Each structure stands twice: as structure tokens, then as C-alpha cells.
Amino acid sequence: MARWFKWAMGLTLALSLLTAPFSNSLPTNAQTKSIDPIFEISIAQLHLRLMPQEEPEVETEDLPPQQRVEQVNCKVEKCIALTFDDGPSEHTLGILKSLHKQGAKATFFAIGLQLRLHPEIAREVVLQGHELGGHSYSHRKLQFLSKEELVNDFNYVAKLLELATDTRPSIFRPPYGEYDDDVLEVAKLPMVLWSVDPKDWLTKDPDETYQRVIAAAHPGAIVVMHDNLGSTRHALPRILKTLKKQGYKFVTVSELLGPLASGKIYKAGPDGKQ
């Protein structure tokens, strides 16, 4: 009887934790103390896995072959850095194909939970010559975490990136672009924000995303978009074609900015007006 009672109570607790609502605020004590067995993190940090996902529209095969990376001098050329947050996802593959077709390079900022789900896509991002940085483990607001939680978060993402790509992150972007001094201190990496935000996550409209990017684009711009959205994947071919006609060269953040300093914040590159 005692064994049955303990089993029932354990099952009830587990179900209540997994179905509890999550938000961007701090999790409950119960959610924080309940540990995921793989990476020894709180169940609260697994909320992205429980969120509804868009239906995949791209197969995970037939990726384009790797192209040679073109060397561009952004102090002379008209450069722009397209960046993509919140992947890797099935839509990342379509984005890779569009970039390849135009000979463009980009920078991706990956979430740890998505790296666990799609390590092969993260690997393909790097193989295609793009840049891959960290974007936190589960997209929580980092300024609300303790230093210990921050250290764990950055370590988890670094470990997952290394397992997927054999490289550790050299740049990072905080969720929502929000941070404090502790985040900068613990990260010990250059922090990349942006100068152009089409808010593709809000409109989820390919035409709106396209129009906003084209209207706001400028030499040295860092554009933030999201590779977990089908709408962004569909907007990208037109964005690339139009900007290419305007004379832009598509480069990674590191190519745009040159040597980066740990603890420094970057929003745009040469002639980026910021």
C-alpha cells in the first residue's frame, strides 16, 4: 500500500509540473527544484519543448552542398549581416537553401533545447559556412537568473553546440535583447544585438517581413529574424534578391564587425549609424 501511494504521489507531482503554465518570469520553487535527468536542469527550463510547434514544411534531407566562403572587406563593400534566432528548426533548412542560392552567409543564434532536438541541422549550419552562436538554453530572461543559473545556462549551450558542431560559441545574443552586468560578466563573450528588427515573430507575415527589412536596411546593419518561423523562410528569398540588387554583400556578424571583444556589445558594423 505504501509503495503504491508513493508511486501515485510521484506521478501526480510530475504531471502537475509538466502541465504547469510557464512565463518569462521566474519559475515556481517546485518547477525550479524538479530536475531534468539529462542535463540536470530544472523542468522550468524545458517549457519551449512543451510549447506548440509549427508543422514542419521542409524535409531534413537534400541540403545544398557547401560553398566556398567569399572574403569581403566590409570597410569598403556595402555589407549587411542577416541573423536568425530561436532555431535550429525544420525551417532552418529552407533558410539554408535560400542563402546558398544567393551565395549569402548569415549568423544563427541557437537555443539549447532546439540544439537537443536538431543537432544535425546545427551541424549543417556550420558546414554551410555560416556562423553559429548561443541564445540561452530555453529563452528565459537572463537578467532574472542567479549567477549560478547563468553559469549553468551558458555551459549547457556551449556543451550542446560543441556536441553538434565540434565548435564552442564565440558570440551570443540574449533573449529579447535584454541583459544586465551579471549576464555580461558570466558570458565572457561578445554580445550581438541588432539595428534592424522587422518583428517577424509578431506579424508572421512574409510580405510584412520583407517590406520592413527592405525599408530599414542600411550598410553595416545587423538584421534580426527568426528561423523557427515558416513566414520568415518564405520572406527570405525576396529579401536576398532585392538587397543583392541594391549592391549588398551578405556576411556573418564576425565578418561585418571584425575582431570582437569579450564583454562588448555590438549593434551594427561599419557605417551602421550605431
Structure description:
It is a single chain. The protein has 274 residues and is α/β, with parallel strands linked by helices. The protein has a domain of 188 residues: Glycoside hydrolase/deacetylase (TIM Barrel). 42% of the residues lie in helices and 11% in strands. The chain has 12 helices and 7 strands. The strands form 2 sheets. Strands 1, 2, 3, 5 and 6 form a 5-stranded parallel beta sheet that branches. It has a two-stranded parallel sheet with strand order 4-7. Strand 1, helix 4 and strand 2 form a beta-alpha-beta unit. Helix 4 runs parallel beside helix 11, helix 6 packs across helix 7 and helix 10 runs parallel beside helix 11. It starts with a helix and ends in an 8-residue tail after the last strand. About 16% of the residues have low confidence.
CATH 2nd-level architecture of one domain = Alpha-Beta Barrel
| CATH fold name of one domain | TIM Barrel
Morphology: globular
Per DSSP, the total helix count is 12
The CATH superfamily of one domain appears as Glycoside hydrolase/deacetylase
Instruction: Give me the secondary-structure category.
Output: alpha/beta
| CATH class (first level) name of one domain | Alpha Beta
Largest sheet: 5 strands, parallel
Mean pLDDT: 83
Beta-strand content estimate = 5-15%
How would you briefly describe this protein structure?
With 274 residues, the protein is α/β, with parallel strands linked by helices. It is built from twelve helices and seven strands.
